[in-house]
Design a protein that fits this description.
The complex is a heterodimer of chains A (398) and B (518). Chain A is α+β, with helices and mostly antiparallel strands and 398 residues long. Helix content of chain A is 30%, strand content 7%. In chain A, strands 7-6-8-9 form a 4-stranded antiparallel β-sheet. In chain A, strands 1-2-3 form a 3-stranded antiparallel β-sheet. The longest helix of chain A is centred in the N-terminal third of the chain and has 49 residues. The termini of chain A are far apart. Chain B is of the alpha+beta class. Chain B contains 17 helices and 23 strands. In chain B, strands 10, 14, 18, 19, 20, 21, 22 and 23 form an 8-stranded mixed β-sheet that branches. In chain B, helix 2 packs parallel to helix 5 and helix 7 crosses helix 11. Chain B is globular, with a radius of gyration of 26 Å. Classes of the chains: A alpha+beta (398), B alpha+beta (518). Chains A and B meet through helix 1, strand 3, helix 3, helix 4 and helix 7 of A and strand 7, helix 9, helix 10, helix 11 and strand 9 of B. Bound molecules: zinc ion (ZN) (7 copies). The site of one zinc ion (ZN) has 8 residues of chain B, from loops. Chain A: It comes from Achaetomium macrosporum. Chain A: This is Transcriptional activator. Chain B: One of its GO terms (cellular component) is cytosol. Chain B: GO terms for molecular function: cysteine-type deubiquitinase activity.
Chain lengths: 398, 518
């Protein structure tokens, strides 16, 4: 502490009374200095983010003007123009600041799309109405509002009785007798209220409500199905923790710390055991009634697929290629919802398809030796299938 | 120690950072003037800045925090001092202006952050050339872009940043400004234990950069139901699509059900399971898909260069000393995570009726117990050729890039009911964790004053997996950090979280990333 700050710390917030003992004064001053440091560190961080963003905005703006000035006449990355704004100078292909960008530059442009950043959330804490005349960068400040997520979305309950009821498991959008996946009409819902989607089982290709997926796959794929699960469950409830002994990755003695798998701990949304059984029986071909039901479901599925470009072909069975082929989503906040209970839209609106073009992937840069050209991969088992469905994909979803 | 020793000028020519599109070339007009005075000015400025950063980050703070006042006495301050860039003086904030007027020195380095203050601007300036040096010093500890990070031998995997430049996260060019990796994952029926682990993978910079740089291309992989392909698809969906709704991890789930890992047979039920076991399952599965294909053997020193090994694996060394002949046996084994028992410690706490209310433990106490203290054991000594009493001490030989820690909250009790019990004792854990005391370096040499070494062993909290509620009916959620912002992931829901939410949670799994990579 300097001679001046012996009485109090630098922040001057935590101050001992004048009559206090010298030791007490010092401890107050120390505490006050520590408080100052915390605030100082925080400010330096925020200052860096803000000032860098504004400085870069000034640079982006003046570069844009320079590019406009040459009007694409040259491909020279450093065109020979000189442009000056209030905040920066463009000269010899370099940008130099003029003054403090915190004072000269008021908005922040996204370094990627060069659109202005929305600076306040649109809802919840600290919300402000965005200027309707401005097209903002798509990266918005996150929303902080109880009951809503960072994007301002909320969800309807997964089904009547919060997934406890059996009915909503056989979600079939084309069967009028099948219950609506969600309570209430979809039309009553504002657009930021989402419903739970369905996904296609990689084995039986049935469309399963996501909240049922684990149970379904347990019985449909299982580790050879229900019996293995049963056996595993049996083994577990016998208290044998043998399985995890093979796992050497934890230091010795750590295994006892993991919860006993046989604890049968369940999430709030778990299903009852008998439901699980019923699901298993459904795919039992020896039961004709159930079999018919399943076939029925499969037929309907085709219609569903016709609507969706994501068609898993028959020889896709062995290897599901990416969720783009698997997932369909219900979006019910649509007029079409009147006719069918649920309208199925492809999950990916953009016709992006795996393997179709290497450009599809977001890249960090050349990681590995250059990729084989997409054509070179055609020889593969499922390559034809993909090019086949890619035609479907590139046509706009109906 | 007010004046720092002047640094002899090296003959090397330093360079101002080349102009980048969308960025001004200099931090301010005054730095522009400084750099345009010629090569000599550039050289001395950069050399002085490097020397100042070294004295701030690699030596005792006593040096950089001690200033000499113009009127005589030296003072050591708790609050920031300012190190003149143009001469070896360290100044208090009050004295800075006077020094500037007298000597016409205009640039000063803040002793807490290493940031550069410009007196003409009367503001901190963020100059691309200086800022690059500062970030590199705080990260890898070295100014060089090509040299190894310092204390390389302390780390399990080679430096993923150096070995694969595409791992550098700042180069990420996502498909859209909206695609930011922040999405929930739907609960597919008691699968929240999987979701929390998947989120921890999704927000792990090493794994993210691996998958986004085509580390494992699902279009090039023939393994049926490959879980690494499913991860690849998931990373693409999170970082390339504009979707903000939840993700359906159907491929992960089917890959999981189809997996033939018998070791994890017990996971394969539709009942809620243990997130830690799922983490081990996934790590092992991904190692097999990306690594040497060998199953890591029990207690062995398995070395593999796959992304999972580069990310999570470290090495433990246990030293057993025979109490009879003082013979020493060393054993080294790889670890994926550190499992810390809570039961004994929390019982001890309870008995003592100690000062701390409710028997709160700290993470460091739990680590002390396992990796500093020694315990007694029986062992067969080769020297004595008989069973002997021995002391066994375990410490970390190699630190991983991402340190995963399990707090053993679930204690399996052999008894009538054969049920697992949950230990609810709160364990305080820091945002920043110094792992140096738990390494064998801490024992083998005097590291008290080695600030550089300590800094290279500093970890930042990345993910916290929390189990809420009773063991049978509980639920998993997690907190992940993206940059400086924390998010709470609860199945399909993603919300903003405060640091206090994170630090007050009852952690079950903790993931820390080494500072030089975060
Ligand atoms: Zn943008
Ligand atoms: Zn199925
Ligand atoms: Zn000076
Ligand atoms: Zn300046
Ligand atoms: Zn694969
Ligand atoms: Zn490996
Ligand atoms: Zn002996």
């Amino acid at each position: 502490m300097s001679s001046k700050t012996e009485e109090t710390g630098k922040a001057g917030v935590i101050v001992a009374p004048e009559t206090a003992h010298p030791v007490e004064k010092i401890s107050h001053a120390v505490l006050d200095d520590l408080l100052y440091n915390i605030v100082h560190d925080l400010l330096v961080k925020v200052h860096r983010d803000e000032k860098t963003a504004r400085a870069n905005t000034a640079a982006i703006k003046v570069e844009k003007l320079a590019m406009n000035a040459i009007d694409g006449a040259t491909t020279d990355p450093k065109p020979d123009v000189e442009i000056e704004t209030d905040a920066a100078i463009y000269k010899d292909g370099k940008v130099m600041l003029k003054g403090n960008p915190l004072k000269t530059t008021k908005e922040i442009l996204c370094p990627r799309c060069h659109l202005p950043r929305l600076l306040h959330p649109t809802d919840g804490k600290g919300a402000r109405k965005p200027d309707p005349g401005v097209i903002y960068c798509k990266k918005h400040p996150y929303i902080d509002k109880p009951g809503y997520d960072i994007y301002g979305q909320t969800w309807v309950a997964p089904g009547p009785g919060r997934g406890k009821k059996k009915k909503d498991q056989k979600l079939d959008p084309n069967d009028p007798s099948s219950p609506a996946p969600v309570e209430g009409s979809a039309k009553d819902r504002p657009p930021n209220v989402l419903s739970f989607p369905s996904a296609t089982c990689s084995k039986c290709k049935r469309c399963i409500l996501v909240t049922r997926l684990n149970n379904h796959m347990g019985s449909c794929i299982g580790n050879s199905g229900r019996n293995a699960s049963r056996a595993a469950a049996q083994k577990i409830s016998n208290g044998s923790n043998a399985g995890s002994q093979n796992n050497d990755n934890t230091p010795p003695g750590s295994q006892k710390g993991t919860p006993l798998p046989g604890s049968r701990a369940a999430s709030p949304r778990k299903r009852d055991v008998d439901e699980f059984d019923e699901d298993a029986e459904e795919s039992d071909p020896s039961n004709p009634k159930k079999k018919k039901l399943k076939l029925n479901a499969l037929n309907k599925k085709v219609i569903l697929k016709a609507k969706s470009p994501a068609i898993p072909g028959p020889n896709k069975k062995d290897k599901p290629k990416g969720s783009s082929m698997l997932n369909v989503e219900q979006k019910v906040d649509d007029d079409a919802a009147k006719d069918s209970t649920v309208q199925v839209l492809p999950k990916k609106q953009t016709p992006i398809l795996k393997g179709l073009s290497p450009a599809k992937k977001i890249k960090l840069g050349p990681a590995k030796p250059p990729l084989p050209s997409p054509a070179g991969k055609k020889g593969k088992r499922d390559r034809d299938m993909e090019s086949e469905s890619s035609g479907t994909m590139s046509s706009p979803p109906r | 120690m007010a004046a720092r020793p002047a640094i002899p000028a090296s003959p090397k020519n330093h360079k101002v950072k080349a102009p980048q599109p969308g960025q001004p070339m200099y931090g301010c007009e005054h730095i522009q003037l400084l750099f345009n005075q010629g090569q000599a000015a550039i050289d001395t400025s950069i050399q002085h800045y490097k020397a100042i950063l070294r004295s701030i980050f690699d030596t005792t703070p006593l040096i950089s925090q001690t200033a000499k006042l113009t009127d005589g006495p030296t003072v050591t301050s708790l609050t920031p001092t300012y190190l003149c860039l143009q001469c070896p003086f360290t100044l208090t904030e009050e004295d800075r202006a006077r020094h500037g007027t007298k000597k016409s020195h205009r640039f000063y380095v803040d002793s807490r952050s290493g940031a550069l203050y410009c007196q003409m601007c009367d503001d901190i300036v963020w100059d691309p050339t200086f800022e690059e040096l500062r970030l590199r010093k705080m990260g890898t500890g070295t100014f060089s872009t090509t040299r190894k990070r310092k204390h390389e031998d302390m780390f399990e995997a080679s430096d993923p940043v150096r070995d694969n430049p595409t791992y550098i996260s700042s180069n990420t060019t996502a498909a859209s400004c909206k695609a930011n990796g922040l999405r929930g994952i739907y609960n597919a029926g008691a699968t929240c234990y999987q979701n929390v682990v998947l989120q921890s993978f999704l927000h792990n910079p090493i794994l993210r950069n691996f998958y986004l740089s085509d580390g494992h291309q699902s279009s090039n992989c023939d393994v049926p139901h490959c879980l690494s392909c499913a991860m690849d698809d998931m990373f693409q969906d999170f970082y390339a699509l504009e979707n903000t709704n939840g993700y359906t991890a159907a491929n992960i789930l089917s890959g999981f059900w189809i997996s033939e890992k018998k070791a994890f047979e017990n996971l394969v039920t539709t009942k809620e399971q243990d997130a830690h076991e799922f983490f081990q399952f996934l790590a092992e599965e991904l190692h097999e898909r990306n690594g040497d294909g060998k199953r890591p053997e029990i207690g062995s020193e398995h070395s593999c260069n796959c992304v999972i090994h580069q990310t999570y694996y470290g090495k433990l060394q246990s030293t057993t000393t025979c109490q009879n002949c003082n013979g020493v046996t060393n054993q080294v084994q790889s670890f994926l995570d550190l499992s810390l028992p809570l039961e004994n410690l929390s019982q001890k706490r309870g008995k003592k009726g100690s000062s701390r209310p409710g028997g709160i433990l700290t993470l460091q106490e739990c680590l002390d117990e396992e990796y500093i203290k020694s315990d007694k054991c029986e062992y067969r000594c080769h020297n004595c050729n008989s069973m002997q009493q021995a002391r066994r001490q375990t410490s970390i030989k190699r630190l991983p890039n991402v340190l995963s820690i399990q707090l053993k909250r679930f204690e399996y009790k052999q008894g009538r009911n054969e049920r697992a019990a949950k230990i609810d004792t709160p364990v305080q854990f820091p945002l920043q964790l110094n792992m140096l005391p738990y390494t064998n370096r801490a024992r083998s040499q005097d590291v008290r004053d080695n600030y550089e070494l300590a800094r290279s062993c500093t970890y930042d909290l990345l993910t916290v997996v929390v189990h809420v509620g009773e063991i049978d009916t509980g639920h998993y959620m997690s907190y992940c950090r993206v940059g400086d912002q924390w998010f709470a992931f609860n199945d399909h829901k993603v919300e903003l979280a405060q640091k206090s939410d994170v630090l007050n949670s009852k952690a079950y799994l903790l993931f820390y990333i080494v500072r030089s990579l975060s």
